[in-house]
Amino acid sequence: MSTPFIQYTLLFECHADYFECHEVLEEAWQDGGRKDLGYAALIQYAVAHYHARRGNTPGAKKSIAALQQKLTLAVTDLEALGIDNAMFARDLERWPLPETLPLDGPTRQRIERLKPTFEPTVLTFDELVHKHMYRDRTPVVTERLRALEARKKARR
């Protein structure tokens, strides 16, 4: 059975598709009422990697600093996912950022068994690096306009 975390991990380690990692966990995090702080931490970790690869070192380091401040709040949720929290804290001190996730032993074994079955990406390196530029933002823009209109009606 694949979970959003398993999907995130395979995208992270097999494709280095940090943008898609963010998308996968963002959807799961939202669906769960934004309660899983482990998901929130890993979303931020993917964002830091995305910024770093694009050469936005200040943005990456800002994301890491914010994540470090929140890490103690997410420990329980991260551990439940299979993250080794001590290793994660050490990894947040490293630069450049590690290209693998700090997984506990059983989770690492599971991921390594799944990697050969994970389809390779069809994206070019440039498409991975600048993925945000290629996405269709129509649903997001439409929802923002709908929310704005609803707020205007509520004020009347």
TrEMBL record:
UniProt xrefs under Pfam families: DUF309
The organism's place on the tree of life at top rank: Bacteria
SUPFAM superfamilies: TTHA0068-like
Full protein name: DUF309 domain-containing protein
Species the sequence originates in: Exiguobacterium aurantiacum
